[in-house]
Amino acid sequence: MIRTMRVLLPALLLPALLAGCGTEKVDAGTLDPGPAGPDRAELDARARALQIAPELVYVTEAPGFTLAQQSVGVYGGDGFSSAYWSQKTGGQIYLYVDRGTVTAESCGGCERDGAGWYRTGSGQHEYLLPEKGDVVVRVSAESATVTRTVLRDAATATHRPGNVELTALFPTPAPTATAPVERGDLPPVGDGAPNNEVGTTG
What's the pLDDT tens digit per position in 6-25? Predict the structure, then answer.
């Protein structure tokens, strides 16, 4: 069963986040990763470094909205979340992907709309789209700033990303483990305390 509506907290936090990092908007359609852009394995590794399952990464499109890259993060156990922002209206569309299922019985207050479900509550409205492999994609927004038509279009446009779109989501390489630095002042035996003895020439 899909978890209950969990959009309120992210919706409250993201405006402050966007205000603090207002220049970090990404248009995935114009991003050029270069001739030697990262391959799929590297991009999946970047997702895993954020504890996001690569198969749960989705993107969407909506006219006038661009990805707020700093909003990309883990959702729940290993799910995915991101937000798209309209500079013109200030509206925000939230994308959440998590494991689960959605049915007429589990989606309280939902109405069927195409391939998904639509519901409203507490000034928010959202579409829930069941995907293969027990995955649910949720596209949410504030009712006052994003119309149902725009939200429906964004829900319909959700899809698994290609490499260019993944690079926009995860531009920073995953951290790699480094070998520990060997210290010359640690004795090979004993409790490992540094050797501070003064040599004969000290």
Answer: 433 344 445 444 444 443 45
